[in-house]
Amino acid sequence: MESSNLIKGTAARGEIRAVSVCSTEIVEEARRRHALSATVTAALGRLLTAGALMGANLKNRETVTLRVFGDGPISGMIVDATASGTVRGYARNPQVDLSPNSQKKLDVGTAVGRQGFIHVTYALELRDPYTGSAPLSSGEIAQDLAHYFRVSEQIPSVVSLGVLVGKEGVLAAGGFMIQLPNTSASEDLVSTLERNVSGLGESSRLIHEGVSPEGILDKALEGLDFHPEERKSIVFACTCNEEKVKGALAALGRRELIEILEKEGQAQAKCEFCAQEYVISRGTLEELLQWSEMS
Ligand SMILES: [Zn+2]
Q: What's the gap in Å between 238 CA and the centre of ligand 1?
């Protein structure tokens, strides 16, 4: 399987900023870790792809968190991404599976819901964390994100996200985001962009046909003088580890620790974001208890 990679750059003398990603590996990793149904693979896969794209616009240790809460059976999805190219995420109800919609596609819109909100939180380096929100417009994620950019950040954006799921897993996933941060962009530029994008087809199909993220932007920005600026690989990765689990257990306090020791004999924990399971042994729990007696 081709690795997940991303390209970003500018076009039209800096009036356009663009980023595109092949996220097949990331989405397959999420499907496998969380045992996602086909429908949730498509839904969470689109949000993970969006996270990868938005992470590309961050610097150094900054992070972005995308939360989608709709009235559909998935209930909610959370994804976060870092500037260094890591993405992780989960869905509240990972096994929701619906029959295909009228276009014979996985019915992401119904599974997510059409009533609800998308929240975007930036943890930036030199500013306080900032959260912007917008109502969902379709539950299909790409349209919801474009709507969010327009109403909350006032940035006209084209967002395309796609996941192609086969019987054995993810066949292809990817997408692109093209933004016009200067609202003074000429009508010519906008109409060229609209014409290119409408003739492009679905991102997941293009990636399945072997078109690279750069190839996708070359087509989407044809005639607009695209300049690639950065390429990097993207991985599904989490920040959890055993030390953090032990810290969380220690923070429960003496009484809780004694209760766990007496009732369970060991502690089990599962990371929501990556589904990694941790088993903390009796010996380690006793150490934590001793430590809590000393402090
Ligand atoms: Zn984790």
A: 5
The CA 112 to ligand 1 mean position distance, Å, reads 23
Which domains are present in the chain? Answer: 5-236 (3.55.30.10), 242-294 (3.90.1280.10)
Cα 274 to averaged position of ligand 1 atoms, centre (Å)? 4
Q: What Å distances lie between residue 211 and 81, 172, 234, CA to CA?
A: 24, 11, 17
| 64-123: pLDDT as tens digits | 999 999 999 999 999 999 999 999 999 999 999 999 988 889 999 999 999 999 999 999
CA–centroid distance, 236 to ligand 1, in Å, is 10
Query: What span, in angstroms and rounded, lies between the C-alpha atoms of 287 and 161?
Result: 48
Q: Per residue in 6-32, pLDDT tens? A: 999 999 999 999 999 999 999 999 999
pTM of the prediction?
0.94
